[in-house]
Amino acid sequence: MPDRYRLSVHVPFGLVCGIGLIGFLLVALQHWRRGTVVLGLALLVAAGLRAVIPDERAGLLAIRSRVVDMLLYSGFGVVIISIAMTIRGLFG
Which of 2, 19, 24, 51 has its CB 3.0 to 4.6 Å from that of 42, i.e. a possible disulfide? Predict the structure, then answer.
């Protein structure tokens, strides 16, 4: 297996982690609502990538079967975003 192929397997997971890190950074900078929405978006990106990338190239995004992964990633993403958007108070 060529080195380029082995490295490209981790790109989708790295993208999702990068988006998640941006979300955590926003939360740490006191922008908790925006940061939480970005974390939810990271899960929705993971669901989208899991839907279009073949199993052998999904890398660490593939935990269970494709359908279960897509349902869990998208479900948790939607729940996190909806909770972040509906909470009132707590400094904005």
Answer: 19
Domain boundaries, the chain: 7-89
Name the residue with tokens 């190239």: 57
- The tokens describing 82, both together, are 């909806």
**Gap between the Cα atoms of 43 and 22, Å rounded:** 13
CA 64 and chain centroid, separation: 16
pLDDT by 10s per residue, the chain, length 92: 566 667 788 999 999 999 999 999 999 999 999 999 999 999 999 999 999 999 988 889 999 999 999 999 999 999 999 999 998 865 55
Give the CA radius of gyration of the chain.
15
The DSSP symbol for 53 reads S
**Tokens encoding 71:** 């349902």
Q: Are 77 and 40 in contact (CB under 8 A)?
A: yes
